[in-house]
Amino acid sequence: MNNIHIFNHTAMATQFQVRLAGEEKDYAAQAAQAAFALTDELESKLSRFRANSEISEIAQLTAGGMLRLTEPVFACLELAKRMEAATAGAFSVCAAALQTQAARPAWSLENFSVRCDGGKLEFDLGAIGKGFALDRMAAVLREWSCPAFLLVAGGSSILAGEAPDKTAGWSCGLGDDNAPQRYWLKNCSLSGSGLAIKGKHILDPRTGKPAARQNRAWALCDTAGESDALSTACMVLAEAEIHRILAVEKSWLVFLEENENARPLGGRALPVRV
Question: How many CB atoms within 10 Å of residue 129?
């Protein structure tokens, strides 16, 4: 059995966890702390609840105004733009803005800057920021030569690196820790979205109304930023719309909760069942 070291850290209003396999404990602790330090730095830039964050500064822009961004903020917003396009607008960092504005604000990116093209840019990165942080944490761990890892953000987002020695991967379930539907994951991310814990907190960016789907949805992707955004989008997408998106994005897999199990959608091969 592999010796797995587990480290926890609170950031972005949730619990982050790093699990490292095959490393000496003190070295693993140093690597995990380096990853957590990056998470804290990202929170200071991406949180809308920090008055001096770049996201809060963006909210002060008026039409035509531009703000130069640091590399991680630009990269996160660039990913958000790509996921909005890929999901036909079912994912958007401006979804909550429709609660205070008549129309969704318009914005664009260029030369490491964001431009306000209309409305007030009230960005909420809650559905992509944690996943983006996991991806950046993974990069830190690889720089520390710690490839066998499992990263968790609040239980709803998981990013698996290489498998621990002599295993098929990291055992991860669809749902709670004791979920019966489990898979061996490696070099991919799994994120879940639902209404059970926070109620009707997911808004359809296309209408401003709460998500119509009552059952949970999970997304399996190469990166945690993708899976976070996709699982959220699947809460507002009709099944026919999900099929159309997955027909284009071959590396994505979606699970929709159905009775006691979750039904897979998409052409990506299923991971090995535990």
Answer: 25
State how far Cα 14 lies from the chain centre: 13
pLDDT tens digits, 149-195: 999 999 899 999 999 999 999 999 998 767 889 999 999 999 999 86
The pTM score is 0.95
- What's the token pair of residue 140? 């830190």
pLDDT > 90: what percent of the chain?
A: 84
Confidence of residue 201 (pLDDT cuts 50, 70, 90): low
What does the H/E/C string look like for 62-83? CCCCEEECCHHHHHHHHHHHHH
Q: Please give the angle made by the CA atoms of 8, 13 and 18, to the nearest 5 degrees.
A: 20
Burial per residue of 190-222, b for 16 or more beta-carbon CB atoms within 10 angstroms, e otherwise: bbbbbbeeeeeebbbbeebeebebeebbbbbbe
Query: Mean pLDDT of all residues in the chain?
Result: 94
Query: What is the residue type of 228?
Result: D
Q: Which residues make beta-bridge pairs with 261?
A: 258
Q: What letter represents residue 140's amino acid?
A: V
User: Starting at the edge strand that comes first in sequence, how are the strands of the sheet with 113-118 ordered?
Assistant: 66-68, 113-118, 106-110
User: CB-hemisphere CA count at 13 Å for 93?
Assistant: 28
